[in-house]
Amino acid sequence: MAFCKNCGKSVDPNAAVCLACGFDPNAGASFCANCGTATVPGAAICTSCGYALSSASAGGEQKSKTTAGLLGVFLGWTGAHYFYLGNIPLAVAHLALVLLIICPPIGLFALIPNFIWGLVEGILILTGSINRDGKGRSLI
Fold it and tell me: Is residue 24 a contact partner of residue 16, using CB atoms and an 8 Å limit?
């Protein structure tokens, strides 16, 4: 369940518009998107549930689900999607497997699973199963 950041009403997590106020549910800053509680202007974290309130106050901009998904589908074997999302440990794991590819005969066994791993994660990002970046912010 998600809440509109503009009016605090409950909204579908995939909704483009809040049915209560007519605004983009991710565009406001008056209510917590996680619990719907009114927030203090300029606060970085909701005092009710501890959720990071906005991309600006959380230390960066929100990442695009489409960009992350396409990076995963086409360049996922390199970990590009995780570098984009800021999840450095998983990005390094992908790169470690890329380095194994250079070393035969281990490389043959690492190439196909690494390609499949990136492709599947790209699809999961595009379908919304993976919907948070490395800092816990929702993908837009």
Answer: yes
